[in-house]
Amino acid sequence: MSFSVNSSSTSIYSTSILIMKTSFNLFNYFKYNLPGWVKINTDETARGYPGLVACGSIFRGSIEEFIRVFSVFLDVQTALVAEFYRVIYALEEAQKLDLTNVWLKCDSALVCVAFTVRTNVPWMFRNWWNTCLNYCWKIRFRVTHIFREGNVCADKLANLGFIHRESFHWYNRLPSSLFLKFFINRYSLLMYRFC
Questions:
Q1: pLDDT tens string 41-58
Q2: Helix (H), strand (E) at residue 182
């Protein structure tokens, strides 16, 4: 059983620096895959504070193959609420799919820290968050902070949440608007976002 929280380094993906429990796994995640693990990238997007919020997640296998994706439109919320919603939704779906090796990648350092410091979780999510943590303790689980440039697929899914305006939408096939970003991300090509 392994549970670790990782923080950013100079690569798009990050290096493990903070370990929970007794396992010690220190290696670079830049191009290495973990056989049998499912990677979940999550992202949210907000238009205003508070404003319209949507989030999305992509589930991929250990060789970056497509499994499933979802997008969620959350109506009027804050970005902080969306950051926790996206991870909670992703972990609930992982539990429904009976996944036992889960590697969560998100671009929110606050959410990564919330796996170790529960006081960072907004009170409205405490029970829901504790349920997700209980699931994480039962499986092999890693959470990693990822920079925005490495999270373009999940970002596109969050934007699809705005377009479709559905409360929850599963895609069993890769949406056509995501093909190019998925290919770029799968082969570790860099994708820069200019603001």
A1: 888 888 888 888 888 888
A2: helix 179-186
Q: How many CB atoms lie within 10 A of CB 85?
A: 20
* Residues 25, 6, 185, 39, CA torsion sign: positive
Q: Which CATH number does the domain 3-177 belong to among 3.20.20.190, 1.10.10.10, 3.30.420.10, 3.40.190.10? A: 3.30.420.10
| One-character DSSP codes across 113-175 | HHTT-GGGS-GGGHHHHHHHHHHHHHSEEEEEE--GGG-HHHHHHHHHHHHH--S-EEESS--
Inter-residue long-range contacts of 167-171, CB under 8 Å, 24+ positions, other chains counted: 167/72, 167/73, 168/70, 168/72, 168/89, 169/70, 169/71, 169/72, 170/68, 170/69, 170/70, 171/68, 171/69, 171/70, 171/71
Tokens representing residue 100 in the block: 């036992």
Structure tokens given for 191: 């994708």
Q: Can you give the pTM of this predicted structure?
A: 0.74
The answer to whether residues 16 and 4 touch, using CB atoms and an 8 Å cutoff, is: yes
At 57, which helix (H) or strand (E)?
Answer: strand 51-60
* pLDDT averaged over every residue in the chain: 76
